[in-house]
Amino acid sequence: MFGTLFVDEKGEIYPHPEYAMLGRSGSQWLEPCREEMIPLPKGSTLVSMPGYLAVGCSRDGRPQAVQAHPYKEGTVWPVAALLPQGFTRTLLPAAVPGPGAAELPLFGYAAVGFEGEQTLVAAVQSDEYRTWHPIHYNTSGLARRVQGTLKRFPDNRIYRQLAHCALDYSCFTAQNIFYQRWEGGVPSMPKCNARCLGCISRKHGQAQSPQNRLDFVADWQEISQVCILHLEKAPRAMVSFGQGCEGEPALNAENISRSIRAVRQNTGRGTVNMNSNAGYTKGIRQLCEAGLQNLRVTMFSSREEDYLKYHRPEGFGLKDVADSIACAKDHGVYVSINLLTFPGFTDRPVQVEALHHFIQKTGVDMVQIRNLNIDPDRLMKEFPSVEPGIGIVDFLYRLQNTFPGLRLGSFNHPHPGAI
Ligand code: SF4
């Protein structure tokens, strides 16, 4: 059994003297089991949920809201964890909105509790996270590197956008471009052919979007310049189109295809990846023919009605997504599903069955488990609980067991054939 934590207005976190910890799956509150909890990993951020009430389990086994500070005067709120890359959330925080509570910003809230002196989080490790460990980012030398690059390439708008993302949003893939290592982001297209409920570059009702979209369409010269420099120099080099600050990159297929060809005339190193909704099959085909190596397809559900309701696509559906994947596979592209994961939705038996069917049909190489950044109540309003989930731990186990050759992880990896 784990204990309930709460936080006061000063940001001080306290153990509740009595209530056992509860977590949330869909619209259900559950006592977490041991395999759903791990010590809080380095690089996690603990956040308060202002205007909400933490819910724990009292000694008589009933859910109880933490209405007041058990030790002194003052307002108290629930505390949640935001996990670093490489960790998958198993339960959401058990919390209820208080009077006048605002919609929560778009983050992937995970439940936390304590055992003895230790803080634990409802999560499992789903990938090695050496290259994404926050210790490698926002270092003292970053600003100097950014200024140096802007001075060297004053006319390249992508570098200016990346400078903004690296320094103002602390975006890791933007920073990697200036550190010249690993996976670097190359944003190029503000337009999108979808309106996803949890889009992080669009304002949603009261909730501010974590990032603003770039305001230009990059041309092939700008794109090639950034890609060539990164792929020629970076260890474990990868360039990724489709970043948090842009729309759908495949809509810029003309420029990106031309830049991939120009890049490959200069260097054979590294991996060219695209994070996409894969709805624009004609664009995906053009990119595969130009030499795209990895394609990551973002999906909330493999059930048509839920897919359409979440992604709100314009002019395409799941069949187009499957056609794009088939085209990519025909060109030897390494294809991943970027599964937007939400405890109590993704692990519903009906969703599990549809996902297994989709993997069977398309033959994707990897499933990346991505904690969905959204206000839990907002999502449950759209997708009310019809059946309880099987649990995220069991969901991952069954996925790997059913598809032993499938790679499970949390982020992009270089193409198996990359040099
Ligand atoms: S596909 Fe990406 S950019 Fe487009 S709406 Fe969805 S999350 Fe936003």
Structural overview:
With 419 residues, the chain is of the alpha+beta class. The protein has 2 domains: 3-125, no CATH class; 130-409, Alpha-Beta Barrel (TIM Barrel). Helix content is 29%, strand content 24%. The chain is built from 11 helices and 22 strands. It has helices spanning 142-152, 157-168, 172-179, 220-233, 253-266, 281-290, 304-311, 318-330, 349-362, 376-382, 392-402; strands at 3-8, 13-21, 23-25, 28-30, 37-39, 45-48, 52-57, 63-65, 76-77, 79-82, 87-89, 92-93, 95-97, 109-115, 118-125, 183-185, 238-241, 271-276, 294-299, 334-341, 366-371, 407-409. The strands form 3 sheets. Strands 1, 2, 5, 6, 7, 8, 9, 10, 11, 13, 14 and 15 form a 12-stranded antiparallel beta sheet that branches. A 7-stranded parallel beta sheet has the order 16-17-18-19-20-21-22. Helix 2 crosses helix 3 and helix 6 (281-290) packs parallel to helix 8 (318-330). The N and C termini lie far apart (49 Å). 48% of the residues are buried.
